[in-house]
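Journal club side-thread
Mid-discussion, someone asked how the predicted structure for our own chain would compare to the paper's figures. Pasting it here so we can look after the session.
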Amino acid sequence: MEWEFTPEQVVKGEVGYGLDDFRRDLALEARSNLGPASPEQVAQTSDLLYDLCHTLATDREVESLLATLAYDPPTCEFLREMVEPMRPNGEMLGAILQRLIMDRVEAGMPLEQALDSVAEHHRQLLANG
């Protein structure tokens, strides 16, 4: 994806770009790149790419994500091929997550609690689609 702002601007709070915005834009990008795909295929691909971006954003090992998909070698290969193209998206997602944490800390929440709160917010977002 391309933005008219940087991850640094998101972290600093100079630009309001959140998780919902990121997921929407990622889904639009997946839809535009998949050609004649069903809505289910677009959603599945978008979810996989989001998981990859989140893995990159949180400095987890891509192999740990792929291990959960070992039953599906073509999907693993697809995600391996997408690591480098998705790095900028992972950086932007990381900036969004940092901003969410910083917002909570600036509101007086202790850091550990802010981390837990953002993780729970993220889980809720994913659970609700």
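Post-session note: The radius of gyration is 15 Å.
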